[in-house]
Amino acid sequence: MNKKLKCLYFSAIIMSAAGEIYYNEECYQEIRKYGLVRRWKSENSARPLANLKAYINVTDFTVNTKYFNGFPKEQVVAVHKLIRYPLLSCLKYDSPQLIEVIRKDFLDRNNKNLPLNISISKEEFLSDPTRFGDSQALDVDNHIFKGKLKDGFFIEAGGYDFEDQSTSLYFELKYNWTGLLVEPYQYYYEKGIHKHRNIASSRVCLASTDYPSLSKYNFNTQAVYDEPSPGSMEFQCLPLYSLLLALGNPTVNYMSLDIEGGEFQVLQSIPWDKVDIQVMSIESHFLGIRTEGSLDDLIKYLSEEGYKHFPNVHKVGDEFVYRDKKSKEAKSIKLTNELFVRNDIAVKAGLIL
Fold it and tell me: Which of 66, 207, 222, 225 has the fewest Cβ atoms within 10 angstroms?
C-alpha cells in the first residue's frame, strides 16, 4: 500500500464511527474494480455507497459434493445462487447502510406464521430431546437456566437443516424462545427454512473481521476457515455483530457456535462491550487444526472478556476422521464443545467461580 493509501486508511478508521467509508485492503481492491470515486460513493455519511445494487455479483454454481473432510460420502448435487456485495467491505460492522442491507437482503423470517414442519411432533421431540436433537441445550438448561427462562433468544451457527442435531430447537419448543440461525450451505439452508421455525435466519458465513468480507467456502469440509478445495466458491460473510444490530441487538441468552473451524476468529471480531451474550457453546475440536489458536488461547481470550470456562459439561462426541491438509493422511479426533458462561450469569446460576 502506498503512502497516500495508508494515509487514507488510517484517517478512514477514525471516520468509520460516523458511518462513512471504512477503508481497508479488501475495500481498496473492490474500489479499483469499479473505477472513479464518484461512481460508487455518495455524500450521505449514513449511506455512503451509491447505487449499491449495480455492484451485486450473482452467480449460479452447481455443487457436486462426493466427499466430506476428504472421504467419500453420499453425493449431493445442488445449485447454489451465490449473492455477493463486494463493496460492502467498505462499511464497518455498525454502518447504518450495512444494517439496512442486511435487514432487506440477508434475513429471512417465517412472516406468514406457517405451522412448524419438523419431522416429528413437538410432543415426540420433548419426550426425548437428546434422541432427536443435541444434548448441549439440555446441558445449558440444566446447569444455567434451570427451566426458569421463558421467551429467550438464541444464536445457532451453523444451523445445518434447522432440525438435525439442532442446539436451539429444544429452547424454542419448550420455552418459546426465538433467535437467529446462520447457515451458508444453500442445500441445507433451503431445507431449514421449510421447517417454518419461529426464527430469523441468514444464508451467509460469519466474518472474522469488523466489516463484511468475501471468503472461500469449502464444500468438501463445509467450512469457510479451511483450506479451499477445487470447487470452492467465494461466499458473502457478515460480522455477527452486524446481524445482531439488524435484529435490534437483543440479549443473547445462548449462542451455539459450530462452524467447522474459525470459531476463535469469529469470536475475536465481536465488540464485547457492545453486545449482551450470556452463555456460549463453542465447537473446539478444530482449534489449531483448521485455524490458528488453541483451546488454552480461547479460554484465556474469553476469560479476559468476562467469561468462565466450565469443562466437561458437554459430553465428548464420537471419533471424527478427517484428512490432514498438510500430510494428507487420515487422522482422528473426538468431537468436542466447550461451555463458557459470563461471570455474572454463572454467579446467578450458583456456579462456583
Answer: 66
pLDDT in tens, 62-107: 766 655 444 455 566 667 677 888 899 999 999 999 999 999 999 9
What size, in residues, is the chain?
Answer: 353
Mean pLDDT by 10 residues, the chain (353 residues): 42 47 91 71 90 80 58 61 86 96 94 90 90 86 97 95 94 97 90 96 95 83 65 85 98 95 95 98 91 95 98 86 69 90 96 74
Q: And the C-alpha cell for 23? A: 477503508
Q: Which domains does the chain have, with CATH numbers?
A: 107-348 (3.40.50.150)
Give the Cα separation of 182 and 204 in Å (integer): 7
Cα(176)–Cα(180) distance, integer angstroms: 14
Q: Residue 294 is placed in which grid cell?
A: 488453541
Instruction: Report the greatest alpha carbon distance in the chain.
Output: 65
Q: pTM of the entire structure?
A: 0.89
- For residue 78, the number of C-alpha atoms closer than 13 Å in the C-beta half-sphere is 16
Among candidate residues 309, 303, 307, the one with its CA nearest the CA of residue 284 = 309
Closest CA to 338 of 301, 323, 320: 301
Under 8 Å between Cβ of 157 and 256: yes
For residue 88, what is its C-alpha cell? Answer: 460492502
How distant, in Å, are the alpha carbons of 153, 209, 275, 300, 337 from that of 305? Answer: 21, 18, 11, 9, 19
CB atoms inside a 10 Å sphere around CB 315:
12
Task: Judge whether 81 and 62 are in contact, CB under 8 Å.
Answer: no
Other beta carbons within 10 Å of 16: 21
Asked whether the bond before 158 is cis by omega within 30 degrees of 0, the reply is yes
What are the grid coordinates assigned to 297, written together? 488461547
Q: Under DSSP, is residue 256 helix (H, G, I), strand (E, B) or coil? A: strand
**Which distant-in-sequence residues (6+ apart) come within 8 Å of 164 by Cβ?**
none
